[in-house]
Design a protein that fits this description.
Elements lengths: L14 H9 L6 H5 L5 E4 L14 E15 L5 E8 L4 E7 L13 E10 L3 E4 L2 E4 L14 E4 L8 H15 L9 H6 L5 H9 L4 H32 L12 H7 L7 H14 L6 E6 L5 H14 L3 E5 L3 H14 L7 E4 L5 H13 L4 E4 L13 E7 L6 H6 L8 E6 L5 H4 L7 E5 L9 E6 L4 H13 L3 E5 L14 H12 L5 E4 L5 H12 L5 E4 L12 E6 L7 H8 L9 E6 L5 H12 L3 H12 L24 H17 L9 H10 L2 H4 L5
Parallel strand pairs: 4-6, 9-14, 9-15, 10-12, 10-13, 11-12, 13-14, 16-21, 17-19, 17-20, 18-19, 20-21
Antiparallel strand pairs: 1-8, 2-3, 2-5, 3-4, 5-6, 5-7
Length: 690
């Protein structure tokens, strides 16, 4: 048995009862405690005397408790305070509404207080961190006089207790740690060994050692993530039985030559890569990312036509019924001259029509099938699926996409997104996919001018909207929420719809669309809007991914500070689709600095890729990293923005390892395989799915 798998209860000072407490933190074995790393540190290496301490600074003061008392203010606040004397002066430790703190101290006991020093009528530290020094406390104590680790806790265990257990585990067991990284790889990247890293992550001798340890732990996290991605990418390319298409001639090439416009360089490059992918027996797993209106549909159409002319079925899956219908109409028009049977599996079909469509799919009479997530229901049986195109792929989970690859033959997968992906995320969450980027917009689209205005300009905005409608244009007005809230003054779509319809624009047709409507209701309203039967469409973010309405030239976004930057850019993409100059008006008094930066970025750039990078900087990686939903190793210490250089090193090494040793069977790589298998089983479960 691996000694690191020893139960935590056998470490000195733990036992059965304490092991049950530690299990609440996920600590069950020696290995668990070694890798249960501190989330922050306190530098208690430099003691300060009371006489030298400066109010407003963080201080570590060692002294003797000379007095303790519990007080109660007139307003009912309980105060416990003690007096610490270090021979040069006195400082008070103060705890509010924690009278029980008294039981942790004794008069004439030596203690250490750590915290921010304040001066009121006396020097005091409110709610200080503390350590009670035992009479035999050594100078090399793990609790004071050094950089001290601080851990996330649970009930019934204190910092001092967990720190002691960690120290005991390291003393007894760290020599059994096996470094998963080969010696040469560590040397190339100037990485310390894992024993040094674990020891100094818990109990750093100094700042320099802590930095080296931290760099190694971050590298390991990124390396495991990138190795999982490399394995997924390699397995789908080498272990799967894919569909090999005959490419370079036939209907698909004729379709491209017959287009009434010139493709952009990005479109040409994407089609060339798709041609190569589909001409191979290895399954395609490609993500095409392009800004709103960059012409991804033409690229998808080429791939669908190519699979159809090779005798296979192609499926196009969209996140909403409205968008699915738009794709169905667009493809039907594109392929009008070709003998291609396109069907749509819609929710609104009557039972007989649905049964007919399902039968066409099952018997292979349907060449191209368009739909929503309904396409991956068990009732849908493809005869010969060769290609699955997934539009706005981030709206679908990885397990939904996996359903399309359940058969014996793995179809080609083409993912599309109009949400530009920052380079950092392209290397992580989507790092196992082949990537095509369409940066240019086709000619003929009108400019979009973006304004950020305060709420005080509302009357001028309404007058401007009336002018635009008088020119025959249409308008979106978007609100962050549907219903009003008593606790907030944020404007709501339902209330404002009535206000706009009955008072401000009572001579115009003003309608409301929102996510709680039935699909048929939303579909009906969007059709009327496209037919110009509606002048002003009041909406929530349901239109973020919507249909193409070239005549809609103006969008007003209320309380714009409530939207994310990428979300604002996606909303703005609903306009500017015709030849008219378009206007995006962001109404906000921007109460925070982040909101100010976000709205400024919108007025300064229309480049979705630039905006995506800025969005990542403003939001940070924490709320958009999303590795768990992709079945990938979690990153806790690394920051994909701050640690981009380490990420790139880890990715290079991981993909190099897998290229030479695809199954991690070589002697020097077997420990990498062991760590991935032990810690991150899910990284292997979804191999082959982007």
């Amino acid at each position: 048995m691996n000694r690191l798998d020893t139960s935590i209860q056998y470490i000195k000072g733990v036992g059965p009862q304490r092991s049950r407490t530690l299990s609440k933190l996920g600590i069950k074995t020696v290995s668990d405690i070694l890798y249960y790393l501190p989330f922050r540190y306190e530098d208690r290496s430099n003691f300060t005397t009371v006489s030298d301490a400066r109010p407003g600074s963080l201080v570590t003061i060692k002294g003797v408790v000379t007095k303790m008392q519990n007080l109660r203010t007139r307003s009912g606040i309980n105060i416990f305070q003690l007096v610490l004397d270090d021979g040069t002066g006195r400082v008070y430790g103060v705890w509010f509404n924690q009278p029980y703190m008294r039981k942790f101290f004794k008069v004439q006991e030596k203690i250490v207080l750590y915290g921010k020093l304040e001066r009121y009528d006396k020097l005091q530290i409110n709610h200080p961190q503390y350590e009670v020094l035992k009479p035999d406390e050594k100078e090399d104590s793990i609790h004071v006089g050094r950089i001290v680790p601080m851990y996330h806790l649970t009930q019934d265990i204190a910092q001092r207790g967990l720190r002691s257990i960690s120290h005991q585990a390291i003393s007894e067991y760290s020599r059994y740690l096996v470094d998963m990284l080969p010696t040469k790889l560590r040397a190339r990247n100037r990485l310390v060994d894992i024993n040094f890293a674990i020891r100094n992550m818990h109990f750093p001798a100094n700042e320099e050692n802590l930095k080296k340890a931290h760099r190694r732990i971050i590298f390991d996290e990124f390396f495991l993530l990138q190795t999982a991605l490399a394995l997924k990418k390699n397995r789908v390319k080498t272990k799967s039985d894919g569909v090999r298409h005959v490419v370079g001639k036939g209907l698909a090439e004729e379709f491209i030559r017959g287009l009434p416009f010139e493709l952009t360089d990005g479109q040409k490059d994407a089609i060339e890569k798709i041609r190569a992918d589909m001409g191979s027996s290895r399954p395609m797993n490609r993500l095409v990312q392009g800004d709103v209106g960059s012409g991804k549909t033409v690229v998808a159409a080429y791939a669908l036509l190519l699979t159809a002319e090779n005798g296979y079925q192609g499926a196009l899956m969209a996140p909403t019924e409205i968008l699915a219908e738009q794709h169905y109409v667009t493809l039907s028009n594109m392929f009008m001259k070709h003998d291609i049977n396109i069907v749509m599996l819609a929710q609104g079909l009557d039972p007989k029509a649905r049964a007919d469509v399902l039968d066409d799919i099952k018997k292979g009479r349907a060449d191209i099938i368009v739909g929503t997530h309904a396409l991956i229901q068990e009732s849908v049986e493809f005869k010969n699926l060769g290609l699955a195109v997934i539009d706005e792929q981030h709206k679908f989970g990885v397990y939904q996409r996996a359903r399309l690859q359940d058969g014996q033959r793995v179809p080609d997968i083409l993912l599309m997104t109009a949400t530009p992906i920052p380079r950092t995320l392209a290397m992580t969450v989507y790092g196992d996919l082949d990537m095509s980027v369409i940066k240019e917009l086709p000619p003929g689209r009108g400019d979009i001018i973006t304004y950020w205005v305060s709420d005080s300009k509302r009357e001028r905005i309404y007058n401007f909207l009336r002018e635009e409608v008088s020119k025959g244009r249409q308008v979106y007005i978007v609100y962050p929420r549907l219903e009003e809230s008593a606790a907030s003054d944020i404007k709501a779509a339902k209330f404002m719809h009535e206000e706009l319809k009955e008072r401000i624009f009572k001579d115009l047709t003003v309608e409301l669309i929102h996510g709680k409507m039935r699909p048929r209701e939303k579909e009906s309203i969007m059709k009327r809007f496209k037919k110009r039967e509606i002048s002003i469409l009041v909406s929530t973010v349901v239109i973020e991914v919507g249909i193409d309405v070239p005549n809609a030239s103006t969008m007003v976004v209320e309380n714009a500070e409530r939207f994310g930057l990428s979300q604002l850019h996606q909303l703005r993409g609903r306009i500017g689709r015709g030849q008219h100059e378009s206007y995006c008006i962001l109404i906000s008094d921007a109460p925070t600095e982040v909101a100010h930066k976000r709205l400024s970025a919108m007025t300064e750039s229309e480049d979705g890729f630039q905006i995506a990078e800025e969005d990542l900087k403003l939001r940070g990686p924490g709320d958009i990293f999303g590795t768990r939903q992709h079945g990938l190793p979690e990153v806790r210490f690394g920051n994909i923005i701050r640690d981009m250089d380490i990420m790139e090193l880890a990715r290079k090494e991981a993909f190099s390892v897998i290229s030479f040793d695809p199954d991690l069977k070589n002697r020097e790589n077997r420990f990498i395989r062991g760590v991935l298998g032990r810690r991150f089983n899910t990284a292997f479960n979804m191999a082959g799915v982007g």
